[in-house]
Design a protein that fits this description.
Layout lengths: L5 H19 L3 E7 L2 H16 L3 E7 L4 H10 L4 E4 L14 E4 L13 E2 L14 H12 L8 H10 L12 H11 L3 E7 L9 H6 L13 H10 L19 H17 L4 H4 L3 E7 L11 H9 L7 H8 L5 H27 L2 E2 L4 E4 L9 H9 L10 E6 L4 E7 L2 H5 L4 H11 L3 E4 L3 E7 L3 H17 L1
Parallel strand pairs: 1-2, 1-3, 3-4, 4-5, 9-10
Antiparallel strand pairs: 6-7, 8-9, 10-11, 11-13, 12-13
Helix pairs in contact: 1-4, 2-4, 2-5, 2-11, 2-12, 4-5, 5-6, 5-11, 11-13, 12-13, 13-14, 16-17
The structure holds cytidine-5'-monophosphate (C5P) (2 copies) and zinc ion (ZN).
Length: about 475
Amino acid sequence: MSGCNEEGATLLNKRAQHLADIIKKQKKIHIVTHIDADGITSGSIAYEALQREGKDVSIEFVKSLDDKVIERLTEEKHALVWFTDLGSSISTSTPQLNKIITDHHECPPNSDLGFHLNPHLFNLDGSFEISGAGATYLVARELNPKHNKDLSALAIIGACGDLQDRTHCKLVGYNKEILNDAIQAGVAKAKTDIRYFGRESRPISKLLQYSNDPILPGLTTRESACTAFLCELDIPLKDNESNWRRWIDLDKTERRTIISNLLTLLLNKGFNSQIALRMIGEVYELSAEEVGTELHDAKEFATLLNSTARYGEYEVGLNICLGDRGEWLKRGRTLLRGHRANLVEGLQYAKDCGIQKQDFLQYFHAKDGIRDTIVGIVTNMLLNSDSADCSLPILGFAYTDEDTVKVSARSTQILVDRGLDLSAAMQVAAAHFDGVGGGHNIAAGATIPKGKEEEFVEFVEHIIKEQLQN
Ligand code: C5P
Ligand code: C5P
Ligand code: ZN
């Protein structure tokens, strides 16, 4: 298997087989999944695969697995609960629940248990080699290898939603095998192209305006500068019918002209070629979807899903994944407009709050200004902008409706390679303040009591200092 730890992959497949066997023995199964794009695709893969098996299925979406949720699930006495894109954190602490888990977050010690499938158990990295949706897909594939390979398309969307293509500018590791399934099943295609968001559905000037990996000095965030840049290259902004032209509407020569001028711009500004070339990489298209819609590009599809369950509209995301292209999609598109506006406003709000810089981290506190369910996305965008210092990890704080504080932590691969582990930092620091935390080395989160933010920052800074100095 290309680029994947073969032994780990074999063990992962074996675990998937075992989980499929557990499922086959049950009639009624309750799915519990996460509210982000990877969570929605994970839940949808499980839901569809179980329906195809003729099971009696129910599903719910949760922000996190706190004690209240576990207590309720215990009282509900489900015959079997299938946790997707979450669950590893409670794998060893809830013997009262009959469960299976397909997750990719870092695991607690001694959690290599028969009902638990997680890449970290088998020496694979869940932050970029396989997502929650990928882990769930492995079980779906075992349930029916002949008919369920089409569900790999949802696993690709989930992986893109979790930015698993970010480290290598393409999907690698076990994700690559899932991609091969999708290509063979005729549900997805991979191609090399510009990686900026909005290839299919945004006017070209907007694609440049919102560019962030790498940022384009003088163009990123500047609408009129982007328009002027394109005019100078003789690229018409509109077609004959006055429609805004999108990246996919450009011909090969136009695309080449733009890319070579963007690369020159970055190199002239002193960016090294490795960073500049990050604008090019693999993009994933979903063959069954209409070209030029938010559904055709996997990253754009993931953003559409992020506009749903993060705002409590779970059914919208679920039904779009299950194939609805009518009313649910219409509602999803409305939510997407609101989500985009919230991200733009949220990013500005975070910048206005001011980023506090310490020796080993930087942070901002949005209080009630940014929803707790999207503060992670905003924190990531901020780290990729020129307002933050990309040599430091960043924490974003926001209040929740439950009178607690949500923390989102984000970093770069360079710091992770130097020993940074935000998952461990969030888990240990949150526990110290009676909160809960975890995630991945590069991106993690926590919920802590209100009023503890400053002490929390000091505590996390101390942990990060130790991680980077060891
Ligand atoms: O809960 P879950 O694992 O699905 O979320 C993963 C989070 O990690 C996402 O918010 C994603 O943006 C972030 N991430 C990142 N950089 C990576 C990998 C993941 O910011 N290289
Ligand atoms: O919520 P946010 O996007 O910041 O989360 C980043 C990563 O940390 C996600 O993978 C999420 O599932 C994880 N996380 C966690 N425990 C928490 C909060 C977030 O494992 N209490
Ligand atoms: Zn995930």
